[in-house]
Give the backbone structure.
Amino acid sequence: MKYDFDKPTQRRGTHCVKWDEAPSDKVIPLWVADMDFEAAPAIVEAVVKRAQQGIYGYTLVEDDYYNAVISWFARRHQWTIHRDEILYTTGVVPAVSVAIKALTMPGEQVVMLSPDYNCFFSSIRNNGCQVSESVLLRHNDTFVIDWEDLEKRCAEEKTTMLLLCNPHNPTGRVWTIDELERINTICMKHDVKVISDEIHCELVMPGHRFQPFAAVSESCRQNSVILNSPSKSFNIAGLQTANIICANPEWRRRLNRAININEVCDINPFGNVALMAAYNDSEDWIDQLNEYLWGNYQWLCQFVENNIPQWKVCRLEGTYLPWIDVSAGGEETDALCQRLLDEAQVWLNPGTMYGAESGRGYVRVNIACQRKRLEEAMNRIKLKL
């Protein structure tokens, strides 16, 4: 491979949330969605070049930024985006709050497919809305939508928005065109807007294809707001750059207003150049990253089958965050994760973070690290189970 993802990296002692929040310097963190790989060389070069200027004032977002976004999604995902549809902001989580503030009223309901990304819960509640959890159904080694329940929730008078995670975190689903079209049909029927968080869109495993919600049909395009960023895929979350893409001009006006109300209207000078380097010059890097992540996932599945057979690894279609059923062990999820942190010095996310009931009996594992590090962590866990 052109890029060495086995290269050891040292993040402890760098003010790193993933590593420096650990209670001990012996802990291997496999929790927060943050990779232990260096960014693509083109990104590093662009950031260093910008840093060498020595002045880091307010950043003007110009044509080359928009062109990078438009070109990337056109050639990689066959999605045509117009420049005036793009609103930049500091991150996808702030963008979620912007969308809720702009397009709902306090007291309304927002539907989620649960278990779901934990920040969705707080973003909904912080904006005065109510969470409505449509719980995904377990089907063999994966999850499917409970269509009857989803329609029932969308039909409720107070429901005005569906907050979608595509690809889905934490179950690892990459929603198909048919599933997305059916979601939109239900939402259109009940006048429900779709907000699609597509931050993991480049992290897709072999045999699966990411489908932007807005590119499914003109109806989907007009009834959606898309939130995306190169941050997860290219490991540049700390550079705080994301985009809100919306075809509906009235919604876009309201979104732009909410961006300014929430004071998330300026991006930093490093995020700007990093995005362009990612989308213009790092496509081969992301392809090789996905190959490496797939290798890590295959290794994890084999290790668990051979050494921790009471655990069941769910199918990973997208993201680098396998969802593992640990219920057969009989230990409460939160207690298990705390014990593994204390005794094995391995930090996992308890499934209850993603739904108090829907996540019970599961853990989420971050495999975006050097394989030797993953092997060490899993061998530590094996000894404590």
Q: What stands out?
A: The chain is about 40% helix and 15% strand. The chain has a mean pLDDT of 98.
